[in-house]
Write a sequence for this structure.
């Protein structure tokens, strides 16, 4: 005897079977490939890449090169420390947006004691330029850099498809964010957003920090102000000694505090870039144009891979991603983790 199922039940079973076959999450993986000297390698094909999730080889179902349009969030620090450099920052940022392709979209945002979204993603140069023109240095204390990155990543990029990039210009010092650096890094390592960070030094100190080709922080030579001046003979006078207030730091202590703060800021920006497969740059204001040009050029050398993670739609577990390239002596930077469902 052949049992005949109701039409509604048959339709439901067919739909469930269809859902079971397609209930996989497409994972986007941005990848950058360079040689040992840091020169980007272009012209790679899908077959040059091998991708693993938790050690298991995955089928690459999506492959795109630098021809794919970019979605860039230009995130600029406008806290009080930028007061003497804001015009140079504006000019360099304008030159950067001039380098974008007509299909690329850009969002301009600033942060100080608050996060300010200047415009939504757009390809219109006049809109972007107007956003830069209206930028001003904050009068209130605060630099919520971590919060700004979190907001852009979670909210501004929420419904954006394709290649997603944040270009962050800051001295790297955070004051007042509602999110900690470690919490932010945990969020970023599971995202598909590349973050390029550009550090520029602020504050007055004799010590200059320089970055060598390996990214190691070094202490540069002292400024002219620190040169020893030959003491002049003084006439004998009566003097009154007034002791310094207890706990007041000396000039040398202030100098060391500033240097340590800069080192910590550099390390934070490097961590943010390395976590997202982006890149870190160290610059002073006169070189910002040059740095922005490098970033714009490198964004054209990225690849984006995609694979479907099975049974991940309702899984909150973190999955590790590994990307390999079938060539010798190459350096691969890629998204390292994925979580389908937030905790």
């Amino acid at each position: 005897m052949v049992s005949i199922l109701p039409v509604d039940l048959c339709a439901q079973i067919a739909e469930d079977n269809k859902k079971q076959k397609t209930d996989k999450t497409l994972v986007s993986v941005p990848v950058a490939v360079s040689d040992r000297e840091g020169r980007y390698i272009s012209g790679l094909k899908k077959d040059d890449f091998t991708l693993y999730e938790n050690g298991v080889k995955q089928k690459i179902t999506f492959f795109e090169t630098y021809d794919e349009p970019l979605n860039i969030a230009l995130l600029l620090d406008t806290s009080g420390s930028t007061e003497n450099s804001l015009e140079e920052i504006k000019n360099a940022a304008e030159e950067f947006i001039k380098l974008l392709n007509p299909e690329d979209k850009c969002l301009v945002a600033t942060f100080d004691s608050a996060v300010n979204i200047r415009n939504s993603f757009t390809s219109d140069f006049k809109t972007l330029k107007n956003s830069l023109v209206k930028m001003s240095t904050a009068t209130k204390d605060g630099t919520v850099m971590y919060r700004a990155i979190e907001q852009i990543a979670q909210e501004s990029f929420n419904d954006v498809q394709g290649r997603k990039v944040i270009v962050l210009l800051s001295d790297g010092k955070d004051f007042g964010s509602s999110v900690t650096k470690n919490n932010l890094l945990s969020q970023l390592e599971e995202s598909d957003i590349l973050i390029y960070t550009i550090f520029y030094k602020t504050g007055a100190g004799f010590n200059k920090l320089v970055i060598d080709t390996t990214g190691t922080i070094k202490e540069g030579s002292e400024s002219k102000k620190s040169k020893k001046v030959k003491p002049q003979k003084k006439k004998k006078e009566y003097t009154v000694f007034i002791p310094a207030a207890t706990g007041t730091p000396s000039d040398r202590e202030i100098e060391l505090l500033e240097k340590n703060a800069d080192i910590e800021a550099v390390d934070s920006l490097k961590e943010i870039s390395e976590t997202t497969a982006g890149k870190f740059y160290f610059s002073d204001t006169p070189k910002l144009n040059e740095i922005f040009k490098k970033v714009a050029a490198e964004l054209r050398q990225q690849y984006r891979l995609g694979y479907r993670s099975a049974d991940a739609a309702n899984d909150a577990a973190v999955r590790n991603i590994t990307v390999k390239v079938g060539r010798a002596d190459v350096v691969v930077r890629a998204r390292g983790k994925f979580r389908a469902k937030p905790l």
User: Anything to note?
Assistant: Residues 20-61+304-338 form one domain. DSSP finds seven helices and 16 strands in the chain.
